[in-house]
Design brief:
This is Helix-turn-helix domain-containing protein. With about 180 residues, the protein is mostly helical. It is built from eight helices and two strands.
Length: about 180
């Protein structure tokens, strides 16, 4: 795996995105994105810019990481660490994972046996916020299942709303 691919994969996982989710956000197929992460292809400058923006990475630093023989990118070389534009997000996410012992709070699976995501107990779309108190660690399967359950049934029967005794009258647009 090349350095560019490793940096993109690391940043994607820190943000809790699957290949498919990131690909959908930037207009790139997940298989093409996988080839970039595995060092088999370099993205075009326009796709690299979309990746950098979505993952809060510095575009110039990603350009520096690219293969010196690439026709798409101007800056060869290597870089030792990722620099995030939004370090508050990265710190908050890490602190939540640490608080939850890198364990899904629904099923108990731990990293690295399953990808973990940080989810908002009260979704942003329903008036929740991005505080540590409103965040919980879930594996990808539990996160997707919870999203489906909330979209179909609302938050009244959600296990985390019940577990943390959240008063739903404080939030808008709840079913």
């Amino acid at each position: 795996m090349n350095t560019l691919g490793e940096k993109i994969m690391t940043a994607r996982k820190i943000k809790g995105l699957s290949l498919r989710e990131l690909g959908n956000k930037i207009g790139m197929s997940h298989s093409q994105l996988s080839r970039v992460e595995r060092g088999l292809n370099n993205p075009s400058n326009s796709l690299l810019k979309k990746i950098a923006d979505e993952l809060d990475l510095d575009m110039e630093e990603l350009l520096i990481l690219c293969d010196p023989n690439s026709n798409n990118l101007e800056y060869p070389g290597k870089l030792q660490r990722i620099h995030y534009k939004n370090t508050d997000y990265v710190k908050r996410r890490y602190n939540i994972l640490l608080r939850d012992n890198f364990t899904c709070q629904a099923c108990g699976v731990t990293a690295p046996s399953a990808p973990l995501e940080v989810s908002n107990i009260i979704p942003l779309s329903l008036g929740g916020n991005t505080t540590i108190e409103n965040s919980i660690t879930l594996c990808s399967n539990c996160h997707k299942g919870r999203e489906l359950q909330i979209s179909e049934s609302g938050l009244e029967d959600d296990i985390f709303v019940k577990r943390f005794n959240i008063d739903l009258s404080d939030y808008r647009d709840l079913k």
